[in-house]
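## retry 2 of 3
previous attempt timed out at serialization; input unchanged, resubmitting
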Amino acid sequence: MFHLFIGAKNQSAMRYPVSGSAYSDELRAAIGLFESGLYEQAGIQFLAILQKNPGDRDAIYFLRLVERRLARNQILPAATLIWQFDPKGSWERDWLHTLLAGTWEKEVVDNTWSQLAPVMIVVDNRLVEAKVDYYRRAFEASCRVILVHLSDETFRDDHSAYRYCDGVIRNYHSELLADSSRTHFIPLGYKAGFARDAHVLKATADRKYLWSFAGDAKKLTRKTMLDAMTPLGNGFQHLTSGFDTDDALSIDAYRALLDETVVVPCPGGWSNLETFRVYEALEAGCIPIVEKRPGFDYFTALLGPHPMPTVMTWAEGAEVIRRLKNAGELETLRRACSDWWRAAKPAMAQSTVQFLQQALRRG
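## retry succeeded, writing output
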């Protein structure tokens, strides 16, 4: 194992690597040894570079990678789940506990980007440049890091921290980030407090509303959706002034509404097609109708084959409901969606845990 002490003075002077074009010939040669699997020789070269320049962050980075490769068969200690915001206010809390069950031994709330552990599952959001230093410090301290990156709906967060993580689990599927084997995508899931244990789902004939919508109608296609759905009749609307505002239904009232609803139209938000509403509809045994865009079938890319009706326009969505109702097929599709979701949840948890374990083994 290669050991290096990094003093605080040197840390403050270091910079993040920008690209390989800035590498010295000596560093390039050491990287060549690393890429050839000659890890011990590469480690010696990186140490030699650091003896000359203890503040060479690129050499530190690759030295830590060498250590990880040489320790691949090492038995790791149990992980610590570290929240970098208060989980009590997190919509994803219950969903993450479901997906990550059994992967950590201790759960703590940090919210100061200071706590480190030998193996860390860090839940964070709103990643900005100032937070990258925390993940770099963890990496340089030889911590093993799985980042759970939430809320990057517009893909504008700073992804520089990914470089210092063994793996990244994130919501909001990205075509560009999907090319990385170190990134695993999870659905948004349902809001904390929405799920019900041993809850009997009503059949179509026993539900009060054909369709319903509760939320902010000002976002993108939502007014168009309401204009298309309203003529269907037997619907329910509860419109709010914004996202998670005081006039929103309580979680219990919203669950009660969906328990009485057959079809839940799920228009996108301000930018992304994915919303919590999709998975809350599935959890309540409803039929979600989701959107797609030309050349962009978001939900199939994220979930694979699924039974949810997927439409380009809400006129098409309304026609889907009419056709299913007239053919007496609403209950068949409702059951198909419910059965698919019941099977998908444990499969998603299994694939997430497998990704986490493989990322930590791979180093």
